[in-house]
Write a structure and sequence with these properties.
alpha/beta, Rossmann fold, binds 2-acetamido-2-deoxy-beta-D-glucopyranose, 21 helices
């Protein structure tokens, strides 16, 4: 739980720090619209080879491969949110009585392009560029003097993922300059990275099913949300019927999106810390039921992605083993960088058994869930990322001398470590951060080796193991 303690400290720092300056803009979080650097403030000293070298008492390891799944960086709001906020803005402007109050809000204009491209913006590009740089720095010896064609980039059909991948790639190249950088190349794969649009059973039973999202809907008309609405209405000094709960959601989305790009948003000023916390819970409920651990099909549909992760790592190991016998074998992938969406990463977390609260999030247990694991501003901000670093390990010398015989169990040669949003994280089932690859492979074999996407996603078929 070290990870959460660290995050808490970071948050405190952010809140304190942002309040030293003229306005106390930065609050706690904006759910999935949280700018990445809120949870991961830019670090000055990223240690070179920090992730490249790893060891336990018994083993000394060096990285041979990294596989990553990365959400796209900060993006512009979509067309529907842009239209909604324009409408809300008009209603508020027409109804504010006190002329001086909320001048910034009254003078506000939408600076995002009003189209439905949801494109990556400058803030998102920077997030990805910096993430690429930091990743390359921490794994420097893995990439140094290597051909960048040994790093594979996979994206979804949404342009923001390709733009993210390119910015990340440029970040790597900045950290590890080469004479003639390879031209950037990526492969589109929606089954791995946008499965939520291809899995009809998921669409029918979860995404397009209001019963499945009931807790989220119920919370929208709860006392807590109405209390936020009343406070916002009182602050603005407008009539009660000018705003409704759904408007709060749009205002919250725009607040987060503007914070990412402009580091400031007059929409955020309408929510105090308590309101912010309630708004976060509302958004978290939606993600929990729509893209989180709540329904089996939601995380099962990520099986092509889980399979891709392990197939590539299996292959890396197989090639290394062959090379040890025959020096002329082909190379292997040093990196497998995949760029997707919150709808990719949320199900992947659940499939891996991460951030799954013992007590489900419901419309009734807001207070009880204060310390929930499934807090999207922390786990699913823009540019959220999960990285598996694969290591080849050798037993330490002293131990070899002490023992009669060398323990020649090849299973211990390869180990794996997980980083979530750049923090080391224990893989469920492992005793140590550095976990034997074969164990991890075995734990996830059900989902990765038994993946029949078409069958799984056929709304007319029932799986044998379903309730
Ligand atoms: C909608 O969700 C509810 C609750 O999970 C479920 O009982 C129902 O079968 C779902 N409907 C469809 C069409 O799958
Ligand atoms: C969602 O459900 C509605 C009816 O409840 C249906 O008309 C619509 O086609 C469905 N959308 C998708 C994407 O399946
Ligand atoms: C989440 O945890 C609950 C309760 O411990 C468990 O029943 C469920 O299977 C878990 N879900 C996932 C996706 O791991």
């Amino acid at each position: 739980m070290l990870y959460y303690k660290q995050l808490k400290v970071l948050f405190l720092l952010i809140i304190l720090k942002s309040c030293f300056f003229a306005i106390c803009v930065a609050k706690i979080g904006f759910s999935t619209k949280t700018p990445y650097e809120f949870i991961h403030p830019p670090q000055k000293n990223v240690i070179e080879d920090d992730w490249y070298n790893a060891h336990t008492d018994q083993y000394t390891c060096g990285a041979v491969h990294v596989s990553a799944v990365i959400r796209h960086g900060a993006r512009n709001p979509g067309e529907s949110d842009s239209k909604r906020i324009a409408n809300i803005h008009m209603r508020i402007k027409d109804n504010i009585k006190d002329g001086d109050k909320f001048k910034l809000l009254k003078d506000w204009t939408n600076q995002f392009p009003v189209n439905n491209n949801k494109n990556l913006n400058d803030a998102g590009e920077n997030e990805q560029h910096h993430l690429g740089q930091r990743t390359a720095r921490r794994l420097k010896s893995l990439f140094l003097e290597e051909d960048m064609s040994a790093v594979q980039f996979m994206v979804s059909s949404a342009k923001r993922t390709e733009d993210s991948a390119l910015a990340f790639y440029e970040g790597i190249n900045e950290e590890i300059p080469s004479e003639a950088p390879e031209e950037f190349d990526s492969e589109v794969n929606d089954e791995n990275l946008r499965f939520h649009t291809m899995c009809q059973k998921y669409i029918n039973s979860v995404e397009n099913n209001s019963t499945a999202l009931k807790e989220y809907k119920v919370f929208g008309s709860s006392d807590l949300i109405n209390q936020v609405l009343e406070k916002v209405i009182a602050k603005l000094g407008v009539e009660k019927n000018v705003l409704e709960p759904a408007d709060l959601k749009t205002m919250f989305v725009i607040c987060g999106s503007e914070m990412a790009v402009f580091k400031f948003s007059p929409w955020c000023d309408l929510f105090d810390d308590e309101d912010n916390e309630i708004m976060q819970y509302w958004s978290d409920l939606k993600k929990y039921y729509k893209n989180g651990p709540a329904y089996r099909i939601t995380w099962e549909q990520s099986c092509p992605l889980v399979a891709e992760l392990f197939t590539i790592m299996d292959d890396v190991i197989a090639v290394i083993e062959r090379t040890e016998e025959d020096k002329d074998t082909e190379g292997y992938l040093l990196g497998n960088m995949m760029f997707g969406h919150a709808e990719t990463l949320g199900p992947l977390y659940a499939a891996l058994g991460l951030f799954n609260d013992t007590v489900p999030l419901t419309s009734k247990n807001y207070h009880e869930q204060k310390n929930r694991l499934f807090r999207t501003s922390e786990i699913l901000p823009f540019s959220a990322n999960i990285m598996f670093v694969l290591y080849e390990c050798e037993e330490n010398e002293e131990l070899l001398n002490d023992e009669e015989e060398e323990d020649d169990n090849p299973d211990d040669d390869y180990r794996i470590q997980l980083f979530v949003n750049e923090q080391p994280m224990l893989i469920p089932g492992c005793k140590n951060l550095l976990c034997p690859y074969t164990d991890v492979r075995e734990w996830y074999s059900d989902i990765s080796d038994d993946c029949h996407f078409e069958y799984l996603c056929d709304p007319h078929k029932k799986m044998h193991n379903e309730l």
